[in-house]
Amino acid sequence: MNPTSLARPQHPMWGNPSLWILAGIMLALTGCGGGSGSSGSGPSASDARFHRPEPPTGPPTGSPKLTISSFTATPSVVTAGQSTELSWSVKNATTLSISPSIGTVTGTQVSVTPAQTTTYTLTASGTSGQVTATATVTVGSAPSGHYGSMTGADLGVGANLNGALPFPSDNAWNTNISQAQVDPNSANLIASIGLSTGLHPDFGSGTYNGGVIGIPYVVVSSAQAPVAISITGYPSQSDPGPFPVPANAPIEGEPVNEATGGPGGDMHVLVIDRDTNRLYEMWQSVPSNYNVAGSAWSASTAALFHLDSDNVRPTAGPDWTSADAAGLPIFPGLVRYEEASAGLIPHALRFTVSQTRKAYVPPADHYASSNTSTNLPPMGMRVRLKASYVIPSTFSPASQAILQAMKTYGMFVADNGSNWFVSGAPDSRWNDDALDSELSQVKGTDFEVVLMTGVVTP
Prior knowledge:
Number of domains: 2
Distance between the termini: 128 Å
Radius of gyration: 37 Å
Number of strands: 24
Oligomer: single chain
Mean pLDDT: 86
Strand content: 15-25%
């Protein structure tokens, strides 16, 4: 018989030396106080091995960072009753809300229709706390039915129009082209003007070389006496006059209160008769006797436009020029402080490029080039700011209004000149530094050409 089969069975613990050692350690622990004040019946409260971790007082370790990358309004300038889109880019938020009046939101955008200029605040909340961002929507006055009627305009040099707009609402100058098709040759046409060249405001406050900065204008009444106009350059393409030009009508580029005829350049004179809804424009204008009532004027060209009709210049023949190389009226495309400061410019603008094509597209009626390259702009070509371009909310209200007009109504190529020079009327209230620094950030790459139809190639 196997002697081991008669051995007394042992408890597993006693037959394992390793377990003997473990048992001894446990007895030693229960028999020691481990510190003053211990009863010896269990582990001491001061023994760190038996402490439970304290609950965290701050954000959990490794919580993802909560950020708002962008919060914008597009467009940022609207008329009363017009909607705009608030859009945002947020990371690691659990809830989003917008004030005032909107509340909790989801997704990445929401449409709003503010009744007045409003600054919206986006609040993003998450496990790591809260962050906020703001976006301002400027609400301008909507055009109040003054299309094609100038009777509400004030009188004088640089006078307010008080909402009056040249031409009927369906005129090309007043047409919303934000949804129009893009011209198939847009990329080449924009490249010819300059992809990295920024916008330049060709208007402002103060003077340059003694002359006002921009193209000035004067509003008169039907009481203004007409005077003879001597046409020296293009009499066969000009309206003969007489024109109701005041003796002291401002001349573009002319030193203030001097009769020198200006330092050269285009020397435009623009006169609006508010009672008859007529616009008189001259190029290279010189008074025969400055500040003497009834004095005649001389000009290289002179044009008469009907502001109350879509038949803008009924006297013009085919391919006629005007005070502008494109045959267009100048005044309707000017940036004016009255509109920009109110937050709304409800019409197309005017700009120049250095190279144009021997062609034009309506509403233009004239060309000023011998180059036939189809990659160069014809006179009257219309560009607009791309829908993807976000107008910075940090820009001044005037700059925002100008850029919004470029999105909604676009700009016409009106003359040969420096690339991306935007025309406007002089005004002492312009902030030149803001205009220059802000508009120069908008580059040619931000624009596209609106589909051209009816291009005329002589």
